[in-house]
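Re: folding output
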Amino acid sequence: MGRRPVIDRERVLGLAEDILLRDGPRGLTIEALAKAAGVSKGGIQSSFGTKNDLIAALMDRWQAEYDAQVIPLVGASPGPVEAVRGHLRATIDQTDEAYARAAGMMAALIETEQHVATLRDWYRGRFGELDLTTPAGRRARLTLLAAEGAYMCRAFGLMAFTPEEWRSLGQDLDALLAGEL
């Protein structure tokens, strides 16, 4: 009897991301991923479960990458305003490839309420402690929402920014957060 192939989860998640970006959420199927990975559908299902479980694994991967970007900027347990500052820096510093990945992720997330709820929890966990009774808390909320809006516009190709315009936007949002605007 032959040995069962070992599935490299990170490689398969990378292939899933590639399919998601190339073919959209509908193109990311267990069958398409198995074919791309050169394994059986059962192997993918054994490693990840359902398509929703696969997307949840992608979300976990993206969240770990985000944390790896933000923690060096503000530490592992930043206060609410510092969390927004770290998020802003990570947003402004992302590459064009990261924005393309974000658009694919968002398209996949809106397919099911389960993933939308996970994302809501993520935002609440990182930014839910802002004290909106203070000017600093209100500026942080406004900065966060402005950064996310700009991020979405860029990720979905709704607005184009030159590198200088993007850096300038980041500087303006930094100034808003600091109360200098």
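--- second protein (sequence, then structure) ---
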Amino acid sequence: MLIRFDTLMAWCRMKFKSKKSRSLSIKKGEIEETVAFTVADQQIPTINQEPVKSLGRCYDSSMKDIRRGVETVLFASEGLLAINKCGLQGEFKVWCLQFMLIPKLL
């Protein structure tokens, strides 16, 4: 399929950038690290080699969200401390919370 994709891209006079892609091979529920995919004579890096960050979320080979929950709690507590330490009055602190911190957490 990758060879067909490569020929189609060549026909369209476009180039595939393997640096901007990641590969993940799962066999029987386990991540297989020995499989290497290549396009245009360039190897596509695996998620183990280079994790992906997309839409503020980091994807790595563990495929678990446990670390993401801890990161969110840490980010929220740091944000609340920063808002509390600033010299603004109460209503402005609420504005910072409502329009700055909460959208970043979402």
